[in-house]
């Protein structure tokens, strides 16, 4: 059997979302074109007279428990069942030469970092028309500049200005392939999570090269509120005036919610 080949493929989140075809130019062992992979020059290979083409020999041994029968690899043909008298000069009788092959791989949507795809028979050719190895493709992900991945869900950290958090408004949220407008309710608190259903990544099912994609994950928007580090004199005056209002002081209900979030964080 030929040995397996391993390659790595780096994907963007957009490619993970849709699936993508990738082409690989591989240096690998391929069947010798001169002897068509047989390793023999001229009339071909002869059947091994020792094992009669089976590749194995059976021996018997008498013991105190009776006759024991064992099977082992034929020492004459080394398990191939054939003997090459005239070896191919191009491949020295191996039936393979070192060459190149371009292989197209369809990467299914939803694959993730570290996942391994397998293409049967696309590895190195086996000697003397032996079984070829497999091509193993390991998936790597490029980091998105704005989105984080959590299995099938995506995470976006939204930083709101204080006026928008207090008054409400509409903001644009980036997705993998576009932007969507999201309504911000008045009084939106830091730590609130907005869930945009179906804006995540598809899940992938199956194994080997037979992966298939199914249900979509969500886009989770974590809300933070930006507090300016420097204020003008007029801005300070405006905030000092608002500070005197009871409406800008956290009540017991708000304090309780914050305590629960803090408690859950450490549990």
From TrEMBL:
Keyword terms, alphabetized: Chaperone, Metal-binding, Repeat, Zinc, Zinc-finger
Pfam families per UniProt: DnaJ_C (PF01556), DnaJ_CXXCXGXG (PF00684)
Matches recorded under CDD domains: DnaJ_C, DnaJ_zf
PROSITE patterns the record matches: ZF_CR
Molecular function in Gene Ontology: heat shock protein binding; unfolded protein binding; zinc ion binding
Domain CR-type, residue spans: 19-100
GO process terms (BP): protein refolding
Gene Ontology, cellular component aspect: cytoplasm
Signal peptide start and end residues: none
Name of the protein in question: Chaperone protein DnaJ
Lineage of producing organism: unclassified sequences, metagenomes, organismal metagenomes
């Amino acid at each position: 059997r030929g040995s397996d080949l391993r390659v790595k493929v780096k994907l963007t989140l957009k490619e993970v979302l849709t699936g993508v075809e990738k082409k690989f130019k591989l240096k690998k062992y391929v069947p010798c074109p001169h002897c068509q992979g047989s390793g023999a020059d001229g009339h071909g290979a002869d059947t091994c007279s020792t094992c009669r083409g089976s590749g194995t020999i059976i021996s018997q041994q008498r013991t105190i428990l009776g006759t024991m029968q064992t099977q082992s690899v034929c020492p004459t043909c080394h398990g191939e069942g054939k003997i090459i008298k005239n070896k191919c000069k191009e491949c020295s009788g191996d039936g393979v030469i070192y060459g190149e092959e371009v292989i197209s791989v369809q990467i299914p949507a939803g694959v993730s970092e570290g996942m391994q795809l397998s293409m049967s028979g696309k590895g190195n050719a086996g000697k003397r028309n032996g079984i070829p190895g497999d091509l193993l493709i390991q998936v790597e992900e490029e980091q998105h500049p704005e989105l984080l991945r959590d299995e099938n869900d995506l995470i976006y950290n939204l930083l709101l200005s204080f006026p928008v958090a207090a008054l409400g408004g509409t903001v644009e949220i980036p997705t993998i392939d576009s932007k969507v407008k999201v309504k911000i309710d008045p009084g939106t608190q830091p730590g609130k999570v907005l869930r945009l259903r179906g804006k995540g990544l598809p899940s992938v099912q199956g194994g080997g090269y037979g992966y298939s994609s199914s249900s979509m994950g969500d886009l989770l928007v974590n809300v933070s509120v930006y507090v300016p580090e420097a204020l003008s004199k007029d801005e300070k005056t405006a905030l000092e005036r608002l500070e005197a209002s009871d409406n800008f002081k956290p009540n017991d209900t708000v304090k309780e919610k914050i305590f629960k979030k803090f408690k859950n964080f450490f549990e």
